[in-house]
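In full, the data:

***
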Amino acid sequence: MEFQTLEDYVGRTPLVRLKRLPGDEAARRNNVVLAKLEGNNPAGSVKDRPALSMIVHAEQRGDIKPGDTLIEATSGNTGIALAMAAAIRGYKMILVMPENQSIERRQTMRAFGAELVLSPREGGMELARDVAERMRDEGKGIILDQFGNQDNPLAHYEGTGPELWEQTGGTITHFVSSMGTTGTIMGTSRLLKEKNPAIRIIGCQPEDGAQIPGIRKWPVEYLPSIFDAARVDETFNVAQADAEEITRRLAREEGIFAGISSGGAMSVALQLSRQLENAVIVSIICDRGDRYLSTGVFPA
């Protein structure tokens, strides 16, 4: 008998219908709001998919081999996923992240054996990326580069997109995703548009001044090279208060314990459900809420 390994359980996550949050107006308009529960991945987020994809494809090309040291700048979820994948496949992992990221994220990365390098919070992810590149240039390791590596969106073209098409029986009309590295929305959009060009792809960015983990509005010089604006039909700006409130309501009213970026994307999906007719709206639940407990978003 052949047994599966942990990496065999990356992907194929549940898609569930929201029962209460959409409310009477969405029901009257015959709209359905669905949540893709990416927190069910082994390391707890949607980033498990590209992390494993980037390592496996780099191995296949001969770019890396077990025992090598990998370096990556991260705000959290990609780092956790890479730390897990590195542990599975035998790599040393150095993660560079802003010092203001939640303690749960740091502890989880270290639990998987990763070394952490904390950059000043004032520099944000931009400085973390600069630090990682400097370390690479000093010969301290190899950067997989989630921001410019096409194996990132490929994971969603080959995994997330086909799963959504199959799970909705091809009825999906709108796909809503937070935009950070943008790998999720790029790869999923490509697949869904090939299946049905009429499907609307909705991206979510933070409103000016909002600090929502996992959602970014990049300066032009730091815009991920994997991003193609043509793959996004419409972009919504998300307010901090809306993202946090929907995050709490997902837990209280739907039993979905999610992170703040998931609340941000779902706030947009719910807004759409009150405006559209006969729509099947899918929103990505990027991760689990347990890595945000110290942020204060959930009541003590």
Observations:
- The chain has nine helices and ten strands.
- The two ends are 47 Å apart (CA to CA).
- Residues 126 and 222 are 7 Å apart (CA to CA).
